[in-house]
Amino acid sequence: MAEPEGQGGPAVLDPRGVLRQGRAFLDLFWDIAKPEQEVRLAATENLLRHLREGRKDDELKYTLKRLVEGLGATREAARPGFSLALAQVLQAFEEIPMCSVLEQIKEKHNLEKVKKKFVRNAAFGNFFGVMALFQSGRLVKDQKALLESIQLLQQLAHHQAHLRDLPRKTLIDIMSEVPETVFEEVLFGILQSDLASALTSPENLHLLLVGIQKFPSVLKPKNLKKLFGSSTVVNEKNIPRLVELLRSAAKSEKKDKKLPSVVFDLLQVSLKEGAFELFWEEGVENGLLKEKSGPVSYMCYRLLGSALPFLSLDQLQMILKGKVMQHYGEHVVTSQLPDRFKFAPEMEGYIDEFLSSCDDPERQLAVLIGFSTLTNQGYPVLSSSTRVVKHLQPVALQKYVDWLKDMFLRPDLDCCLDFSSNRQKKNQEKVNKAQYKIARLRKWIIHRLANIIESPVKKEESLVMDVSRFCFFHAFFEAKKKTSQICEANVLPSEPLDEQAHSVTENYFFALLQTLNTLTVLGDTPKAAALREKHIHGVTADGKLWIFLLVEYANKLLSSEHIRAVKPFTKGQRDAWDRTLQSVKNLQKEENKSDSAKVVAFQQLLLLMAIHLFKNPSETMDVLSDLLNCTERAFSKEHKKKKTGNAEPGWVEVMVEILLSLLAQPSLLIRRISKSMFVRICPNLNKRGLQLILDVLDPYQEENEESAVVVLEESGKKIKSAQDMDEKGSEDSSDEGDTEEENDSGDEEENEEVDDDFRSQLMNVLQAGNAVGGDESDEELDDEAMMALDKNISALFAEQQKRIQAKKDEKDRMRKEKILRRDFKIKVLDLVEVFLTKQSENPLVFDVIEPLLRVIEQCMSSDSDKQEVDFLQKTANIFKNSLCRSKQYCKRVDTLQEDLHAFVERLVKKACKHTDSSVALYYFSASLYLLKVLKGNMSDKSSAPTPLLEKQSSTIPQASQLLSTGCLDMERVTVIYQQALTQFLTKRNSALTSSMFQDLFSRFPIMCKPLVGTLVKSVTAGARQHQQAQACLLLQKVLLLRELKLFVTEEEWEELIRESISQVTESLKMAGKCVLKAEKEKVAKSLELLNFLLKTVTEQKLHVNLMELDKVLVALNQPEGIGKSARLDALYWNVMRWLNYTKPKKEKTANKPVQDAEPLKRKKKGFLPETKKRKNRKKGIQENGVAPVASEDGEPAAPEEQPPGTETPKQKKGLVPGSGKHKNRNRGIRENGVAMMESGEEAVNGADAVAGKKKKKKKMNLNRKRKGDAGNEAEQVPSAKKTKGNISQETQQKQGKANQQKQGKAKKKRKENKAPVLQE
């Protein structure tokens, strides 16, 4: 292949030679300039493939020419696209000399010859050209091209206004890829001036630092001293200048939010030269940090995080106790405000990266302890829940835990890098600062220990137990003196724990207990792996519960003489403790004999209550005593043989009461264990136990309880019911955003009733002080009397204020109680959901239906605050998903048939009587659920299903199941739903909806045959037109069900179709003129039903007389019939086609121009060229040798009337008036593929209007092209009536004629001219 010669190669002799080969090759260059990166990459690949396959010199030359030109493109996305393509071409075709391409780039983008406004494009062209050469990978091999490229980059470095520091960065990248010999022979000479001026700019310094690291033998200390006078870069002499350069680099790259490369390289060079301590102390701490600016500070923080992997242990300890760390801590504390930049997540990323890459446990431990000892008044700034510990080596993790425990027992504040913010310094109180810091430090440590167990770090069981015992011991126990028998008592705290410290430790311990309950099995043994596969949590590798091990440890502590509990047990509490341990041991013996899951659930609950004895002994005693009794009765063999009387509650009922009481606890662990416990006792749940749960949800029982609570007002001695207070409290909760003034005004309104009493008391005080009387009363009061009067008045107002405050407090208390009650009910709903999910086949499920419906009904009519809405949504979801849509249901209802049928009747009647359709829907859905249960159960008395024909059994799958009625009493159920359907179709305001009955028919096709007669009659017997329309809709849905044919014979089916057609015919006879919406709806539904019926008659060849229907439908096609509705017209002709009628086509004729109308004169403005006049513009229509088809009035035919294929290019593009692209053409005329037909007179008028609009549009397009030029004396013709589609066109026409006519005159002329007129 011939090589392109210098300066772009010889000129292409046949410039169109490439073009003749096709557009595909040229389009590739357009795609390379697209902004989408995927398109650019695909175009580059296709270009390379094309060039490899073609191997043509002219194409390659043309490619180089186009790519070099594109390097200086104006669009930013095009420049890197052409640069990448050029690099790929140079890489693929190594025979192309690099120097020739570089010369071509210089010539095309000559910075000296280019105009001033194109200097930016030329600079970028040169830059991206060098980038292309470098990315091709061949630049380093060609020394001449490399030398010229470096010189070009040095020249481009002066254009900082456009390129900024891009040339310098590219120069550094090239230098980092160059071999040492090439650097020494080629580049060192031309870069010597830049290297010598390293301390003048950050870019030159970066160049030197990269050279020192990359070419140490070339830039050795001897050569460095020759360059800029010192053998090292980091020394005391250069520190001030280095600080200035680093500050400049920080401010120039502050938007990037990353460490500047020059700073990182300077760190590397300082480590290499052994001057890191000098660089850090003098350059960073005493230099950079003195300038209190954000970019410089963040650069120091990033330098600290980036330096961690490269430092030794001593260097790590030095920087972690330095000023940068303290400065970072102050930033973390002061950046807690929401709108401030927070660097803590970025620093945590640096720590995470260091710990994951470091294999030295000592260095890992040093970094983690260093950040843990950076404290703000004793509290470390490192998050106590950070997950960086997951990368610690096991040895480092164990040492870190030991260090935390030692710091908890013997806090060493001297080893901490402690600081206080300016605000904290100002607000310092006279308290014991050391105790305050120790308390804050211990709080962080105990949380850190608990979080280590929760974090996904690899840990041993011994470590988990060690931390758990430590937290448990210091939460509930204290050591009297040292003892070696207990590890936690080996060391006594240097500062005793106070009550607050025990309370904090106690809270974190229960959080740790929750983690232990969900902890996966630890260890690598086969038994542990087997337990993990079974998804068993909360146990050790031996299968023991973690909580059981803690209880054993607690029992050991209680038996020790050297340990005392923070809250010592009484004799009764200790007996309960011992009894609990004995019961747990008995359960462990029963674990292999009975249900192990149930045994484990009882164990967990017993052990948890036992541990809660240390927290709330008095409150836990009653629950623990009842729980122990339930456990004994649940697993006692003698008790199972006895039948409990009605007076004594069973163990299940007592257990339910216990679980309900535990659900009210704020502990998440208790609630979770209670829920898991309820799952285990669900199979044993009886009706009384379930009723205890449902009583909590009963809204009427809640109202009765609330009505017993009264509030006694001291002033008026009046009693207000708590229900009223609750209503007011709910109003307050829904209006939380109100201002204090609004609340005060509300209080004033509430206290209006006591104003009279207060006013009378005030008058009595004034009269007693002679302040109210005759005109001389003021003169008779001396100073002592005035003082006494003021004292009495102030006492009276203070008493009144107390009464008002008492009312507010009572109101707030009632509101909070309501919130707590509602929250408790939401938790109890979890138990109901568990029962419905786990025991869906239990007959007790039927007892849940009505309580849930009452809750939904009550919530629908109550307040709409967020908590109430959440409660309603959760109840509704449980009712729909866990109950009505459950695939499993009770299979044993033989004894409950009568009750369930009565239940269905009761639910349907309530749905009919209800006024809210949304609530009625839930009642109706519940009745359908009971239908499913009754139909799905097989009764012994029920008759066998009717045998099916072979054709039916093969057509309808599971047809025998559809025909089976199960336990369903069809006669009784038919009466129930027939009454509901009759009410829906005859009652004016019914809560039932058509979707309810559609659901009934689709889910239970067996109900279609008994109810279809009611639907057929209601087509004409409906109370209103809306009901008649709904009857047509439901009848059509029923007839469309293919399962219906299983229940009717062919004769019955034919009679049903015949009767339906007869009813629809009578309905259409009664139809008047379709003006109202209800009338249109009725006719539309009737026509839709009729369309299906006639289709069925035609396809199945049924014998039905359609003469009467024919007459009715023909009469319906009158102006007083369906009217001008496009939808009705479409439906009408859809029906008529089954009777062999076709819709007549409308004749589109335009009005002839009115000769009597006076032309509207237009004022001449300028000269109109001949080519723009109308007579010449019409010639453009006759393209491709086809003349326009003329209409009756001699005008060119409308686009609809032109033969296909005769559109001109201008018509296709929409440039000629009357072109085929009318977006609003025939809007509303076509629907469902049927055109609308009107009477003859209306058709003529419509055609006239259409012709007038087309002429109007021609006129508007002509005026657009004139752009204000006059010369044509054609008059402006207003159209008759404006449709919606012409409104925007008319607006544009007004704007185009703003300089020709005033809007007022145009409106006046439009009113005067109602017929479209067109005169040439």
UniProtKB/TrEMBL annotation:
Its subcellular locations are: Nucleus
Q: Which InterPro entries match?
A: ARM-type_fold, DNA_pol_V/MYBBP1A
Q: Principal localization? A: nucleus
* Start and end residues of each stretch annotated as Disordered: 718-755, 1146-1320
Q: What GO cellular component entries does it have? A: nucleolus
Q: Does the keyword Nucleus apply?
A: yes
Identify the Pfam families for this entry.
DNA_pol_phi
What is the name listed in the Swiss-Prot or TrEMBL entry for this protein? Answer: Myb-binding protein 1A
Q: Where is the composition biased (Acidic residues)?
A: 732-755
User: Which residues fall in a compositionally biased region of kind Basic residues?
Assistant: 1161-1179, 1252-1267
The gene behind this protein is: MYBBP1A
Biased composition regions of type Basic and acidic residues, renumbered to the chain: 718-731
Q: Which UniProt keywords apply?
A: Nucleus
The UniProt family comment states: Belongs to the MYBBP1A family.
